[in-house]
Design goal:
Order of helices and strands: EHEHEHEHHHEHEHEEEHHEHEH
Helix content: 40-55%
Shape: globular
Number of strands: 11
Largest sheet: 6 strands, parallel
Bound molecules: guanine
CATH topology of the largest domain: Rossmann fold
Strand order of the largest sheet: 1-11-8-7-5-6
Length: 315
């Protein structure tokens, strides 16, 4: 037996803990802004009745209120014409009291998402989805940066995880997570590889990652053979599973019972792109689903709202 072989028991990175720290700092920044006569304001626009969006938007509005950020929720009917949505964006762009505008995605099929996102004033684009912000991020300039990847960097820094020179692998190339994540890791001087559905031998590439970020939306695509012993594994996936057999493959004794009960009661349980059992036994650090990066996203949205208020109002 190889006596040098180390049994890893991943440290769980709790989104709750990191988001609480970010929110505390934001609340303090908000009170300073208020003392200077600035009341930051976030407007969330939601179109239609997507149930997941409803949950996310409620959480965003509630968190804003908790931190002293004024918020408005514009809920528009599913059949809202493109022109009406664009007119609302124009109105919010023009309003002096509005610092952040967030158009919740996905939008209904008849709406051209790109046209809507490009209509936002880049200075109020707290999601960081506008091409001006994406371009500024790519060129390493001050920008509003997408919340999930920005939250992940913030968490890694708080944890003291060395990114400089590290091999970082990002699985997924979306504009919301994969691409900005790769650019932010590059900014931190990591050696970055982006993988996607056409990547040859995903396990071979991933298994060399000191930092592995999974953001593809494929249940359990990252397994034991994808994980370098001791790696930092960040799971951005949000998938649900409905059967006991998948749950048994996914979870060890520490949480299987709880998950099976959830499936029995609610018909499904939330999982990520990473097989939790494999990550917990082989990684050095692991962000669970739920309770991992999802919470960071909302906290960073608040941080971006304060940043947008400062940038636009020059305070
Ligand atoms: N839908 C899922 N994630 C997000 C997000 O980060 N921002 C917006 N606007 N919509 C989303």
């Amino acid at each position: 037996m190889n006596t040098e072989m180390k049994e890893y028991q991943a440290e769980i990175l709790s989104g709750k803990e990191f988001s609480a720290a970010i929110k505390e700092e934001v609340a303090e920044a908000v009170s300073k802004l208020k003392e200077a006569g600035v009341e930051p304001c976030l407007v969330v626009v939601r179109v239609g009745a997507d149930p997941a969006s409803e949950v996310y938007v409620r959480s965003k509005v509630k968190t804003a209120e908790e931190l002293g950020i004024r918020s408005e929720h514009r809920h528009l009917p599913e059949d809202t014409p493109q022109e009406d949505l664009l007119a609302i964006v124009d109105e919010l762009n023009a309003r002096e009291d509005v610092d952040g505008i967030l158009v919740q995605l996905p939008l209904p099929k008849h709406i051209n998402e790109t046209e809507v996102l490009e209509r936002l004033d880049p200075l109020k684009d707290v999601d960081g989805f506008h091409p001006v912000n994406a371009g500024r991020l790519a060129q390493g300039h001050e920008a509003l940066v997408p919340c999930t990847p920005a939250g992940i960097i913030d968490m890694l820094k708080r944890k003291g995880i060395e990114m400089k020179g590290a091999n970082a692998v990002v699985v997924g190339r979306s504009n919301i997570v994969g691409k900005p994540m790769a650019l932010l890791l590059l900014q931190e001087h990591a050696t970055v590889t982006i993988c996607h559905s056409r990547t040859r031998d995903l396990a071979d590439v991933c298994s060399r990652a000191d930092i592995l970020v999974a953001a593809v939306g494929v249940t359990g695509i990252i397994r034991e053979e994808h994980i370098k012993p001791g790696a930092v594994v960040v799971d951005v996936g949000m998938n649900s599973i409905t059967d006991a057999e998948t749950a048994r493959d996914f979870f060890g004794d520490d949480e299987l019972e709880k998950r099976l009960t959830t499936i029995e009661r609610r018909g499904s349980t939330l999982v990520g792109d990473v097989n939790a059992k494999a990550a917990k036994s082989k990684a050095g650090y692991f962000t669970p689903v739920p309770g991992g990066v999802g919470l960071l996203t909302v906290a960073m949205l608040m941080k971006n709202t304060v940043k947008a208020a400062r940038l636009r109002r020059k305070v």
